[in-house]
Model the fold of this input.
Amino acid sequence: MQPIQIHDVVANEFGQVNDYIVSQLSSDIPLIEQIGYYIISNGGKRLRPLLVLLAAKSCSELADDKLKNAIKMATIIEFIHTSTLLHDDVVDESDMRRGKKTANEEWGNAPSVLVGDFLYSRAFQIMVDVGNMPCMEILAKTTNIIAEGEVQQLINCGDPDTSEASYLKVIQYKTAKLFEGAALCGAVVAGANAEQQEALRLYGMYVGTAFQLIDDIMDYTSTAEEMGKSVGDDLSEGKPTLPLIYTMKHGTDDAKERVRQAILTGGLDQLEDIINDVRYCGAIDYTQQQAQQQADLAIEAIQPLAESEYKDALIALAHASVKRRN
Done:
């Protein structure tokens, strides 16, 4: 099953999510709508809202009220995600995302931050409309943990002594937590039992971790066109990702020193040499293996779910998360 077929099993519901997203971007302030439309329509895969729909439908056939809440929950997740992207790009001083100028590059930092705040608050307005207290609790905790992950990543930037455990904690907080929240909220709005909820929570956590591991590999294996951002972005920001952490453990002495200095200074002067160092010492293969292990755990986690095309799509999504190039 290819990625397009993963979307196909919830194509109608996915279309309703996109329509609802557009409707909820409305504001009396034109700049909010302008920036909101710009980033929401900027070619994203909508994996997190997709996960809400697949999780919900893998648990049961959805009555109209539950389907409406699943669509609203998918929109909430996408708004939270989009808000974090706006804030991330300001913090990271990024100028390109998904092959287009970032909002902060186009309009400046202040409007980007404030529209990010608007999307956060709109997400919580929709959450109140859904009126599901367990989901409110899940997403309140989720957004708090994401913020902690962002701060920890900021602390780790420029620190070449960051451990693998510290790095994994950051990506579990910063990236995997929203995947986890998406899958769990999908199960909750569907009225899933405790076993189904836990299966999907674990699935989201593992898939989100795999997704970020592959994202970190692509900084050293893909072109700017494939990634939609500049090659070496992580290195230029001094981020000690797993490929670099592994290289500092297993690379040659020269490689270790090059990587250390690059993380300390955030420099790209030796980018080509470092890309070769990362590949030569086995860091890419190691990180890929770690991602595959997470994907395998995700698939194992949902074995208790009843067989369905939605479960099949979740399995395909786990496989796709470790095979992507953008």
Observations:
- The first strand starts at residue 96 and ends at 97.
